[in-house]
Design a protein that fits this description.
The protein is mainly alpha-helical and about 180 residues long. The protein is about 65% helix and about 5% strand. The chain contains 7 helices and 2 strands, in the order αββαααααα. The longest helix is centred in the middle third of the chain and has 26 residues, at about 100-125.
Length: about 180
């Protein structure tokens, strides 16, 4: 008995993993952490358009792809730890919205960032997370730009650029 639809269904089932199953080990220098980047990307993609439409500071960028150039492999753990700490302590802490969907998604992203940051802190404690001049300078540049903006505008800008950070995280751990 031939069931053509069954093969198609099986192929779809095998190739479409739930987001929870896509958790993977990311390597930043000597440190490795577990993260579900696709779930974070999904949460961000659901709010990206709304957040970016709130961003009135078109002439200012906190993060660009060049922000991450020059950060050596041994400093990536430290830089990421500081970036995620900045997002958790400063950006998400000050973000307010009247949309329950956006609030749920930003809380989800914040919780994911906090979890990754906690693992990176453990690497730092184990002396696997080198902090050098390049990561310090880059964080100062980002924070300086952030502080030059109105707080609400800066927070919206930072959240709207999360996809740049996520892209770097995925690419960075592979080097």
């Amino acid at each position: 008995m031939k069931v053509p639809g069954a093969c198609f269904f099986l192929a779809v089932l095998l190739t479409s993993q739930p987001l929870a199953a896509q958790t993977k080990r990311l390597h930043f220098g000597q440190c490795s952490v577990t993260a579900n980047i696709p779930a974070i990307q999904q949460a961000f993609s659901e709010i990206k358009q709304a957040i970016q439409s709130e961003d009135a500071a078109d002439d200012v960028r906190l993060l660009t792809k060049s922000t991450f150039h020059g950060i050596q492999a041994d400093e990536r753990c430290c830089f990421l730890r500081h970036m995620l700490g900045f997002y958790v302590r400063t950006v998400f802490k000050h973000y307010t919205t009247s949309s329950s969907l956006i609030e749920r998604r930003t809380h989800s992203i914040a919780n994911s960032f906090l979890s990754i940051k906690t693992n990176l802190r453990q690497c730092h404690t184990e002396m696997k997370c080198h902090c050098g001049e390049e990561s310090r300078v880059r964080m100062q540049e980002i924070q300086s730009t952030f502080q030059q903006l109105d707080l609400n505008a800066a927070v919206v800008k930072a959240i709207g650029e999360i996809d740049i950070l996520l892209d770097w995280m995925e690419r960075s751990h592979q080097h």
